[in-house]
Amino acid sequence: MSPVPDFWKDGPAGFEPSERICPGTCYKYYLCGKGCTLGVLFEDSVHLYLEWLTEGGAYVSYPAALRYKAWPKHDVGRLVAQGVWDVSRTPDLPEQTELVAG
Fold this sequence. Notes:
Layout: H1 4-10, E1 29-33, E2 36-43, E3 47-55, E4 58-59, H2 64-67, E5 68-72, H3 73-81, E6 86-88
Antiparallel strand pairs: 1-2, 1-6, 2-3, 3-4, 3-5
């Protein structure tokens, strides 16, 4: 099953995943590491709901079903504590002209 329908079910009222990356979207914060940037869209008591934004300094071209993920908070917390991922409010994102279709 695609993870995208879970986002419609688990997300806040009115949330709909986009077929394209929209850098102006309101992310709570970002996770940066392993050459990637993930935007945290929302969270509940157990999971962080993320959109995979960049890899290797460029926006990813993956479809929505691959870009949207839910990760257990305890796993993310462990990886942040180990220094694998850093939490950022203002990541270095590519220019919007570098966006690709999803």
